[in-house]
Amino acid sequence: MNVVFIAGNTMPTQKAHGVHVAKLCEAFAAAGATAALWYPAPHGIPASTARAIFEFYGIADDTFGVRPFGVPDVMRLEPRLGRLFPYLFALYSHALGARVAPLARRGCADLYFTTDIDVAYWLTLTGAPTMWECHRVPRRLGRLELRQMFHSR
Q1: Residue 19's pLDDT band (cuts 50, 70, 90)
Q2: Angle (CA) 132 54 70, round 5°
Q3: Sheet containing 2-6, strands listed edge to edge, beginning at the edge strand earlier in sequence
Q4: CA distance 57 to 4
Q5: Taking the model in full, what pTM does it have?
Q6: CB 3.0-4.6 Å disulfide test: which of 28, 74, 104, 122 passes with 128?
């Protein structure tokens, strides 16, 4: 089985979700799957190498594949936008899903796994076999996305 985990955050990260993502990819590989991690790499910021990710999380080299994909660097805008930043970040999250969906459509994974609802939404729109792990109950737009996802195959 070929499993691709699509992260909604850059890797490695000091946040707990980074550990979760890396260890889940490691677990997929240990279970016999051909696993890969796709993660956003903001333009202008060098993407982490697989070696850096494996070393950061204490995982054996080449346990799973690593593929960064380019996205705009919106985090640098946070200090300038203040209270408007959450709205920009919501747009960014949707753009991330829209960016990765065509990559998944061209890929040949048996399963695409994510914890990002916007990524899951866009993957289901393309018909990609998607598993979404929910870490918080979505509100507003997320609920519309949930309805759409539940009606998809």
Answers
A1: very high
A2: 60
A3: 65-71, 34-42, 2-6, 111-114, 130-132
A4: 18
A5: 0.82
A6: 104
Q: What is the dihedral angle through the alpha carbons of 136, 141, 146, 152, rounded to the nearest 10 degrees?
A: -150
137 exposed, middle or buried (CB, 10 Å; 0-12, 13-18, 19+)?
exposed
What's the token pair of residue 71?
């996205």
Domains delineated in the chain: 2-150 (3.40.50)
Exposure of 54 by Cβ count < 10 A (0-12 exposed, 13-18 middle, 19+ buried)?
buried
**92: left (phi > 0), else alpha (psi -120 to 50), else beta?**
alpha
- Mean pLDDT value of segment 65-82: 72
Token pair, residue 35, equals 């696993």
Has residue 46 got a pLDDT over 90? no
132 beta partners: 114
**Cβ(41)–Cβ(68) below 8 Å:** yes
